[in-house]
Task: inverse folding
């Protein structure tokens, strides 16, 4: 492969891009890579905002009703910097909302889905680039809705991210903006998922059979299916809640209902209906938030263990199994909600079963590490930590799947610990790993590995200090979303532990400065990366770094799966998917 | 290659700038949003606080006088006069009569008219102006508090006495001549009363304390009903009649008397001091508080004819 | 094997990163100031107290009552400084586990630092939280015009106010509840005093301007020049006297509250252990009164759903309602005058002044919440905000609910004549208590009218 | 420092187990259980804790071991070129599947007892959650709810007899709340317009917290209540006392103390 031709190729693309005008090239771009980066940047900014919101929560739990420095006056106004209880509820709601809908989902499917899918399947772009662009720009009205809701009368939504009616319906404009934002995010995800499915099915390079797809792509594919089938339910449900809120319908309002001495216009609905509809989306959404991370981790682990992925097909089947089962387990969020307890039993069985594919995946990752030559680069450290943390998150899930235990731990910090282990220690760590891993492809430069390791070590240590103790808080029955749990005698002794957690949380968020500096600095000053700095097999690594418009400067033809590390057929310990097999060499 | 990277970078910079702009907008909104409303008024200053607290804790200095007016003259005089409206007499709007009592509360099918500003079209006299002496050094026996009762009737959802001025100790006989129940709610600074008055019954209320200005009397059941009530320590008070005339007899002569003039259509709530800036008012040094000082000779019968421009009554 | 060996970041980048972070952090407001008592600006503008006095009133109140962090009980108030200290300031606990800053911890979100019922949470609540400053309390055992007793305030804290967002604080240690009662009284007295200071200021006469020799300065006409007399009890002993006499007067109300308790006459109290039929008969008599002489139906409605007269306001909302109406009137007048065109100099100046004043009023109005009507209680819900003991309901019937349109049926003062006899009031109590169980109450309906006033 | 990273991962199982060992000493453990059925739930919890604990230690141990053994810096052995093992896949599919199904079936009885088989008695108290308080309605002398002699309490204190089957009717006046009794291992969301029940038998005298466990508004944290278990005789005394209080027709006038 001649570098010279590659360069001219890239140059040509750069020029065509330039000719299209700055705005259309870098802002309203149709290029999947630029759109992916747009998603990446906006989610990282929201990650910061969401993290700050979490610090507000942690402050209150560590120093209840004490004036909060800096943010206190911003949030609470006239009360001398103390966090007012409704502000606390707002923090809880908006932290979850921002993290789920503006960080995790967009960064996984939006950023990495967009950036990687065409590159990894050998396509020059998405099937419908315009739709792709729209899926990003539909996020902006959602950003404005949610961000702006902090400044409307009554502030942002306080209904919890689950927005359970009838309480959510007592909220004002904040809730309306929240629902509108949610619907817009739904539309954006919908556009993305349709595009991903089409692209993966239709636009694979020659030789890229379904079972030669990297796990990342399989995960994105299944995620897209989940989104496509679950999202309409949420969109419909949030639309129903909007009409309940603004137009006086009564889907979720019981007969004769009144609160806060407000007369209500109608009734005859059922609050539980919302929970069913909401969780019908939001439980699959949990897998939307973890499957792509699992896929990316599989790729990273196999690459740095220099060894084929253990049990490729079982991995694919287990992802599909998670997706299938994911649709019939939503009721486990509602064990104590008042639904028929008979349903509880059914959901317990299905929930227990969904632990199975996750277990299979974990064992396969361990199998991949077994007998390899593990290179502990920064991405690998994050990927291994994902496995390690996912074990904790997965095992703690078994507690709440067990209905009698869930009666006790439901809505306690045990749940908080569980989903933070899955979503922060799991997904967010995987995302960090993926950023370190694919950064050279995105920007053509390497991130600093030493600082990356420092970032990893600090984050890894602190996140365990933050989230692990929450398990024992939960065992004690310590409830979620309580602005001042120390009112209760039972929980008074949890204060020191919460202070410890809060210190660690402040430190952890503070330490992300390392990442921010490394990330921004490396964009401009990092050492140049070649096409394949990690000696990886994946197709994306055969493209220039960063890839020009149209991605490949050659026509990729796929000869094998992406995990042929340490293959005996070749001398190198990697065997790129496009490299023709030795048999072809013989004929030469 | 280089160009491409530079372009990518500058593209990123643009995005950074965009997000920076977004962030700064957010920050700006937060900062402005968190600013406390200045309308909440000032906060105490520690230095003056310390000084004043010192003064409070150091015990009261003996004061020469206890503030009561000192008698300087002898004999009695009379003040009479008339308040004349300068302008077109306003048409009073009917009350916003609502609810099931509409029929009973209407005179010949029409809601009663408000009595906020009553001007007699012939004499142009203004009714229901209240004038009283703020502090009298001597009180004539005819102006001493007595125990006569005043009938305070209500009919067709109108208080028949629009302004009830009286002395403390007198009883207000709150009468209800309507076929339905009323309640009478007096929200004074020192006199609070809220009792239901069943149809055709009479309740009594005897104020024990003086009020500095007339206070409102209302009926919660018929919120449009409005009247005023003024208990004073002595009888030196008058409410102008339909022709705007008043008379306060037997006021102490030879003293500087400070009169307060009040009308309900002045001020934000529940009426206020009537402020006049006409030449005759200027000669009385009529103050911004609706007060003027006057000194009468023994047996003098002073006549005050005052022109009230429409603007003084919020017109 | 060639692993990427990566350069250290340039120091420049780090510096830049730190700068960005510092800017982000500094972009917030300054560090939190301790909260301060605020003036009742509605009162200030409605009474037309000149703005220059606001600072002085604030200073005098500060001298008499201290700050939210350091309350001060003037001996004349008879308040317990130790209890105030426990209730005031930021929330914290000492090593022994004694809690301080109780008001800031439990009450301030709704009732506000100043006790004006305008904490940040207040806007979400219906009814709005109580404004302590006028010292008018609804649920008490004393006569309408009287202050509540300590026991009354204590009861409200223990049982909460059902039907509102006021929760019960019965699980707090007794000493903490007592400290809170004391602090609520403190805020009330402070509020009353603020109002009295406006009266003091209103009565201040202008004083003569004197030159360095103590001679009064005169204008061209030979009249003495006059200037505003500042409110400063430290330099004007007579002001101090007057302030203290106001304080004494208002403290008398608090100190005599126990004497104003309504004690039902023993001989009229129905027996403690009545047969159900007797209760029923009594309720039936009450029912006749409800629709007849007592005329409860006028407000509570012919169905007792609270759907009678609903357009009146309670005192707290009425003040704001009238304030807003007056603003409307003022701006209307300005619009009219502007429309008239052709104004002379004086009228022009007047117009400018009025506009400035209107702007000030509107600024104050912007800090208010929308006034709400006083909705009579739906008696069929079985929710009794002031408590559901028979004596509580008896007190409501006897003396009405202070500050609200609800009138009393008993004598307004000892010895006066009431509308109903006590026996009749007890009948009403029985009827009111039986209303939720009357058949038409099932199923209960929400209030049918006045939707836009409440939403 | 050679195998630094593997040791970092080794800290996970060590720290994880250590935290749970240390937790009781930090007084952070399951709260005191005063119910009859609570034991079952605690046992189930401990059973799953032990089971997951073993799996946790084994998998995290394996993770550590592989990171330690196969660290490229110290491992010179050639890479094991393998695409997986069918037999292993079968083993680690079937084994967890059986275990998980066993856990599920094993729990069903406890669940049924807690939520599906109420005792055949009349409800003793109606509990109503409202923003932001728990209100309690006792049936009064006629033992029937919603009659004129009901005793309604809003002071957040619930009195119940000990050592007796208790059936509570729980509902909400406005939004969702959750009636959570940590010491009885019971929790039930309450929904406006829906009646639910909760039943238990307390076995200890004393006062225990009532917590609201479903976000119900700004004052969610204020919904503190307390349940007191009393011996039958004391309980009846308390009921009578509350009935008397509700019927009070006299008012206490404090002695005038001129201080």
Result:
């Amino acid at each position: 492969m001649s570098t010279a031709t590659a360069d001219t190729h890239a140059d040509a693309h750069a020029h065509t891009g330039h000719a299209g005008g700055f705005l259309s090239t870098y802002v309203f771009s149709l290029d999947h890579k630029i759109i992916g980066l747009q998603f990446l940047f906006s989610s990282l900014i929201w990650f910061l905002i969401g993290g700050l919101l979490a610090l507000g929560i942690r402050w209150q739990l560590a120093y209840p009703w004490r004036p909060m420095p800096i943010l206190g006056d911003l949030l609470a106004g006239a009360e001398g910097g103390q966090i007012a209880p409704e502000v606390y509820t707002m923090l809880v709601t908006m932290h979850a909302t921002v993290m789920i809908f503006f960080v995790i989902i967009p960064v996984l499917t939006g950023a990495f889905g967009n950036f990687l899918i065409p590159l990894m399947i050998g396509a020059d772009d998405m099937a419908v680039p315009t739709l792709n662009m729209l899926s990003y720009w539909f996020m902006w009205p959602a950003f404005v809705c949610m961000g702006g809701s902090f400044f409307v009368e009554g502030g942002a939504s306080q209904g919890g991210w689950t927005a359970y009616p009838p309480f959510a319906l007592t909220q004002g404009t904040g809730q309306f903006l929240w629902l509108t934002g949610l619907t817009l995010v739904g539309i954006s995800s919908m556009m993305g998922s349709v595009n991903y499915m089409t692209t993966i099915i239709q636009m694979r390079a020659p030789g890229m059979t379904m079972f030669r797809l990297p796990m990342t792509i399989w995960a994105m594919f299944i995620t897209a299916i989940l989104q496509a089938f679950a999202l309409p339910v949420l969109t419909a449900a949030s639309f129903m809640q909007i009409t309940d809120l603004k137009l006086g319908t009564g889907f979720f309002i019981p007969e004769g209902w009144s609160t806060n001495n407000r007369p209500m216009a109608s009734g005859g609905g059922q609050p539980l209906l919302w929970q069913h509809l909401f969780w019908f989306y939001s439980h699959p959404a949990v897998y939307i938030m973890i499957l792509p991370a699992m896929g990316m981790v599989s790729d990273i682990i196999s690459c740095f263990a220099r060894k084929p992925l253990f049990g490729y097909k079982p991995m694919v089947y287990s992802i599909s199994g998670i997706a299938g089962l994911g649709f019939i387990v939503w009721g486990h969020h509602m064990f104590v909600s008042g639904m028929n307890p008979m349903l509880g039993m059914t959901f317990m069985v299905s929930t227990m079963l969904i632990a199975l594919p996750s277990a299979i995946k974990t064992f396969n990752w361990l199998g991949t590490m077994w007998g390899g030559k593990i290179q502990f680069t920064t991405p690998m450290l994050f990927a291994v930590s994902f496995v390690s943390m996912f074990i904790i998150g997965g095992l703690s899930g078994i507690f709440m799947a067990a209905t009698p235990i869930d009666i006790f731990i439901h809505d306690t910090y045990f749940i908080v610990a569980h989903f933070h282990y899955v979503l922060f220690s799991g997904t967010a760590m995987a995302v960090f790993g993926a950023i370190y891993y694919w950064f050279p492809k995105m920007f053509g430069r390497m991130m600093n590995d030493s600082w990356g390791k420092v970032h990893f070590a600090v984050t890894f240590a602190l996140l365990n200090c933050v989230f692990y103790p929450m398990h024992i808080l939960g065992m004690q029955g310590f409830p979620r979303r309580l602005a001042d749990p120390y009112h209760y005698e039972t929980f008074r002794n949890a204060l020191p532990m919460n202070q410890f957690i809060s210190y660690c949380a402040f430190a952890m968020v503070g330490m992300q400065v390392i990442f921010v500096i490394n990330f921004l600095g490396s964009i401009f000053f990092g050492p140049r990366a070649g096409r394949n700095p990690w000696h990886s097999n994946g197709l994306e690594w055969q493209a220039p770094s960063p890839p020009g418009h149209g991605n490949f400067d050659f026509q990729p033809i796929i000869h094998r799966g992406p995990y042929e590390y340490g293959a005996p057929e070749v001398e190198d310990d990697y065997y790129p998917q496009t490299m023709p097999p030795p048999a072809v060499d013989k004929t030469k | 290659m280089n160009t491409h990277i530079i372009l990518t970078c500058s593209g990123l910079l643009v995005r950074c700038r965009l997000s920076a702009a977004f962030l700064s907008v957010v920050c700006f909104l937060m900062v402005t949003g968190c600013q406390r409303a200045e309308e909440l008024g000032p906060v105490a200053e520690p230095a003056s606080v310390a000084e004043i607290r010192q003064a409070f804790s150091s015990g009261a200095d003996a004061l020469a006088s206890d503030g009561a007016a000192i008698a300087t003259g002898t004999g009695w005089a009379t003040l009479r006069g008339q308040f004349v409206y300068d302008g077109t007499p306003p048409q009073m709007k009917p009350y916003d009569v609502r609810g099931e009592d509409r029929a009973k509360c209407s005179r010949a099918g029409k809601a009663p008219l408000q009595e906020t500003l009553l001007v007699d079209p012939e004499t142009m006299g203004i009714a229901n102006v209240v004038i009283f002496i703020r502090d009298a050094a001597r009180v004539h026996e005819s102006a001493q508090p007595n125990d006569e009762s005043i009938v305070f009737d209500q009919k067709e959802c109108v208080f028949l006495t629009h302004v009830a001025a009286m002395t403390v100790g007198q009883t207000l006989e709150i009468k209800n001549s309507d076929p339905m129940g009323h309640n009478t709610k007096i929200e004074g600074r020192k006199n609070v009363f809220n009792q239901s008055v069943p149809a055709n019954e009479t309740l009594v209320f005897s104020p024990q304390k003086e009020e500095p200005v007339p206070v409102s009397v209302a009926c919660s059941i018929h919120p449009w009903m409005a009247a005023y009530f003024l208990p004073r320590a002595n009888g030196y008070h008058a409410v102008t009649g339909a022709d705007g005339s008043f008379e306060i007899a037997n006021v102490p002569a030879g003293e500087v008397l400070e009169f307060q003039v009040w009308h309900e259509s002045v001020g934000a709530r529940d009426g206020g001091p009537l402020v006049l800036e006409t030449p005759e008012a200027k000669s009385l040094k009529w103050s911004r508080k609706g007060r003027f000082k006057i000194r009468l000779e023994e047996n003098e019968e002073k006549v005050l004819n005052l022109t009230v421009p429409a603007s003084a009554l919020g017109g | 094997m060639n692993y990427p060996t990566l350069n250290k970041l340039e120091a420049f980048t780090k510096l830049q990163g730190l700068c960005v972070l510092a800017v982000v952090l500094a972009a917030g407001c300054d560090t939190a100031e301790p909260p301060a008592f605020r003036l009742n600006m509605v009162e200030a503008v409605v009474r037309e107290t000149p703005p220059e006095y606001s600072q002085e009133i604030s200073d005098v109140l500060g001298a008499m009552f201290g700050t939210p962090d350091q309350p001060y009980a003037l001996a004349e108030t008879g308040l317990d400084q130790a209890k105030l200290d426990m209730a005031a300031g930021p929330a914290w606990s000492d090593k022994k586990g004694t809690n301080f800053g109780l008001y800031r911890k439990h009450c301030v979100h709704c009732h506000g630092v100043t006790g004006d019922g305008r904490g940040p949470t207040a806007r979400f609540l219906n009814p709005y939280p109580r404004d302590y400053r006028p010292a008018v309390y609804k649920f008490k055992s004393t006569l309408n015009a009287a202050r509540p007793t300590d026991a009354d305030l204590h009861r409200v804290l223990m049982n909460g106010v059902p039907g509102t967002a006021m929760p019960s604080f019965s699980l707090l240690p007794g000493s903490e509840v007592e400290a809170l009662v004391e602090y609520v009284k403190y805020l009330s007295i402070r509020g009353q005093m603020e109002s009295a200071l406006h009266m003091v200021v209103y009565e201040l006469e202008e004083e003569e301007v004197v030159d360095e020799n103590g001679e009064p300065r005169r204008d061209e006409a030979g009249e003495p020049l006059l200037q505003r007399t500042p409110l400063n009890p430290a330099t004007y002993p007579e002001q101090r006297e007057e302030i203290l006499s106001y304080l004494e007067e208002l403290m008398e109300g608090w100190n005599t509250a126990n004497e104003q308790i309504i004690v039902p006459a023993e001989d009229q109290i129905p027996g403690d252990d009545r047969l159900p039929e007797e209760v029923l008969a009594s309720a039936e008599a009450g029912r006749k009164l409800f629709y007849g002489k007592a005329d409860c139906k006028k407000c509570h409605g012919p169905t007792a759903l609270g759907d009678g007269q609903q357009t009146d306001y309670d005192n707290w909302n009425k003040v704001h309602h009238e304030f807003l109406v007056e603003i409307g009137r003022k701006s209307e007048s300005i619009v009219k005058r502007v429309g008239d065109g052709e104004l002379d100099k004086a009228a022009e100046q007047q117009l400018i002044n009025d506009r400035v004043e209107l702007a000030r009023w509107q600024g104050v109005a912007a800090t208010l919440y929308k006034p709400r009507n006083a909705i009579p209680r739906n008696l069929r819900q079985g929710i009794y905000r002031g408590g559901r003991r028979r004596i509580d309901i008896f007190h409501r019937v006897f003396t009405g609910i202070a500050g609200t349109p609800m009138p009393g049926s008993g004598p307004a003062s000892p010895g006066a004549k009431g509308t109903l006899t006590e026996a009749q009031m007890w009948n009403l109590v029985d009827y009111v208590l039986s209303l939720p169980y009357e058949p038409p109450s099932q199923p209960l309906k929400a209030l049918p009218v006045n939707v836009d006033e409440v939403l | 420092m050679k195998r630094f990273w593997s040791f970092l991962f080794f800290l996970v199982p060590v720290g994880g187990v250590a935290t749970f060992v240390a937790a009781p000493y930090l007084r952070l453990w399951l709260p005191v259980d005063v119910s009859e059925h609570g034991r079952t739930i605690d046992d189930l919890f401990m059973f799953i804790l032990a089971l997951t604990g073993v799996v946790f230690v084994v998998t995290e141990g394996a993770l550590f071991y592989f990171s330690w053994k196969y660290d490229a810096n110290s491992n010179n052995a050639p890479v094991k070129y393998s695409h997986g093992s069918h037999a292993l896949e079968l083993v680690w599919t079937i084994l967890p599947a059986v275990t998980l199904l066993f856990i599920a079936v094993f729990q069903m009885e406890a669940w049924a007892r807690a939520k599906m088989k109420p005792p055949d008695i009349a409800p003793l108290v109606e509990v109503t959650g409202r923003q932001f308080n728990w209100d309690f309605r006792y049936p009064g002398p006629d033992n029937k709810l919603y009659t004129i002699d009901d005793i309604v309490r809003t002071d957040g204190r619930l009195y119940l007899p000990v050592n007796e089957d208790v059936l509570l009717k729980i509902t909400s006046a406005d939004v969702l709340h959750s009636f959570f009794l940590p010491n009885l291992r019971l929790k039930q969301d309450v929904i406006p317009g829906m009646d639910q029940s909760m039943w238990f038998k307390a076995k200890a005298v004393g006062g225990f917290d009532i917590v609201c466990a479903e976000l119900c508004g700004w004052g969610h944290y204020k919904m503190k209540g307390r349940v007191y278990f009393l011996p039958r005789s004391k309980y009846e005394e308390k009921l009578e006392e509350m009935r008397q209080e509700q019927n009070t027709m006299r008012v206490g006038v404090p002695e005038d103390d001129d201080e």
In short: Chain A has 19 helices and no strands.
